[in-house]
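To: structure subgroup
Subject: Chain for Friday's discussion

All,

I'm putting the inputs and outputs inline so they're searchable in the archive.
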Amino acid sequence: MGLYHQISKLMPEGKLKNRFRNIFYKISNSITLGTKMLILNKERGIKGRFHKPLFVRYSDCLEELPGYVGKYVPQKGDVVVDAGAFVGNFAVYASKLVGPEGKVIAFEPEESNYRLLKRNIKLNKLKNVIVIKKGLWHKDDLLKFKTKGPESCLADFDKEENLSNTISVVSLDSFFKRNRIKKLDFVKMDIEGAEIRAIEGMKNLMQANKINFAIASYHIVEGKQTCIKLEKMFKEMGYKSNTGYPRHQTTYASK
């Protein structure tokens, strides 16, 4: 990431810098240097092979995995949503946990991440992973967003102007209804502050299923970490929740 940060520091925030971010990461994620086998869970003997992009450190992604399964480990036959799938570390891990009887639906709206995600799923020959180029929200819509390196956030809660990127977003309620999927067992989210809106968009699923959640909740929305609002929302819907795993703050919930 050194080259990116050196150039980025010289540029003021605004439309030009946002465009630079987009171009830089589209190029960097499209250039890969071979593949690498990673141990996703040593105790369970779960491994995955991944393309090696120039500026993605898989070690950072691997540190997050134990936190996502800290309270609930997906079981054989489970239906799992991976929201903010990035380049596929958790999607590959979850696919091997749920097995051929299960299903992983991976949402990733950012173009360069999406392309690398698809390549990694194909590299691992996974037939139980569906990759969707959309973000999660409380309704189906088109929204502006900005890129911060490999991450992005939706403009609805980030008031920065001059955003030129537009992504398609969907609510989980509408997506599952449209695709006639009734079962949902586990939801992992790391969607840069959009998690509150995403939960608002899946109330029907939460009522019909006993869903287990693991949500990255350190993001700041309206001056507060999203864990505060999430725990309140879960309580109102009859779910028990708590926030932990300080290395990558995660809010857990179950019914």
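Points worth raising on Friday:
The chain has one domain: 2-254.
The radius of gyration is 18 Å.

D.
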